[in-house]
Amino acid sequence: MKFTSIYIHIPFCRRKCNYCDFVSFPVADQQQYFTIYGDLLLKELSLWQQQGSDFSQLQSLYFGGGTPSLLAIESIKALLSCLHQTSEITLEANPETVDFDFLQQLHDAGVNRLSLGAQSFNDQALQVMGRCHTAAQTINAFNEARRAGFTNINLDLIYGWPMQDRAQMQADLAVALALDPEHLSLYGLSLSDQSPWGKRMLSGDLEIADSDLSADMQEDAMKILEAAGLHQYEIANYAKAGFASLHNCSYWQRQNYLGIGCAAASCLLEKRWSNLKNLADYASSVEQGKLPVCEQETLSFDEIIAEAIFLGLRLRQGIDLDQFAELYGLRAEKRFAKQLRQLTEDGLLIVEDGSMRLSKKGLLLGNEVFYKFI
Ligand code: SF4
After folding, report:
1. Around Cβ 176, how many Cβ atoms within 10 Å?
2. What average pLDDT does the structure give for the chain?
3. Domain architecture of the chain: domains with CATH
4. Residue 133 in contact with residue 95, Cβ under 8 Å?
């Protein structure tokens, strides 16, 4: 079992944001698990090693959440010391949880990429989202991270929040660009029925940007960010040259990754699984020396092909058709000839020079394209 990347899920937050449906729990409600969580992660890692997992060729390690910056620095250091050297080690941080001392220790421990959850630089928006920080705290955290030595920083932004117009989205981008980040992730707000905002939207009590406004905002962002030297290398991700996230690219290229921690997801060749989503169940399984795995599925060859296509098409460079044939033993342009013809006629897909990729219009309407391959 050779993995190229590891994702470590930290399912704790100060409190729950109104749009969030990630597996995360307010620390105050889960104090007993929060205090032992670092040890549980170490135990789970060692269980995978006992099962023959090979981490000798890891390219990336990613602490995601939740709010990984709530984890004690000692736990982060202990996990890093168990893993081989990797090229990219990212930690997601919420601005209100970090100070210079923590950031410096993080950097000294080997974390070389920081991902700050800014979401917006509009204080009113942050407040209605239920975020625990202000725009000034994000700017301060960013500057302190630079002072601590981070030369690869991502800012996460959300667009399409209630009442946001195009000018407000552009204002958010202007503040982000003034900080000069190496990487920017820009996600359109999408709400599951289970989130507080999702419930309000279902009952007609809340409106978010409709698909036309979202597409306009995305188009504005593509122009503004490209002009500022941040290349859109994936539908929602922009980076300076040489700063595309190795970890995220491993997902889109369907490489093998192992998820550690409560609710973490993994992929190994044709197998996919996720860890137990309940903290007590997760803790009890690991403490008993059992892998905390549930929801395993084995994909059919057709499912793997479809997945490889719609994940690969998320990348701006698209899919190299010769490489695809080598990896999967079939020509995608023959297998999906009908879909390709229709999508190119509709101006959503470009097939040329041995590759297929989304057009500008396709980047705005990605889901319409992906649906054709499922
Ligand atoms: S900080 Fe992130 S993971 Fe935590 S509740 Fe907010 S959006 Fe969800």
Report:
1. 26
2. 96
3. 5-251 (3.20.20.70), 301-371 (1.10.10.920)
4. yes
Give the DSSP H or E segment for 31: helix 31-50
- Structure-token match 């117009």, residue found: 165
State the closest ligand 1 atom to the C-alpha of 130, by its place in the atom list counted from 1.
6
Q: CB of 286 within 8 A of CB of 292?
A: yes
Nearest-CA residue for ligand 1 atom 7 is 20
Per-residue buried b or exposed e for 266-300, using 16+ beta carbons within 10 Å of the residue's own CB:
bbeeeebbbbbeebeebbebbeeeeebeeeeeeee
pTM for the model stands at 0.96
Residues with CB under 6 A from ligand 1: 13, 16-17, 20, 22, 24, 65-67, 94, 117
Smallest CA separation from ligand 1 atom 2, residue: 66
Which amino acid is present at 354? G
Decide if 10 contacts 70 (C-beta within 8 A).
yes
Tell me the pLDDT tens digit for each residue of 115-140: 999 999 999 999 999 999 999 999 99
Q: Which amino acid is at 328?
A: Y
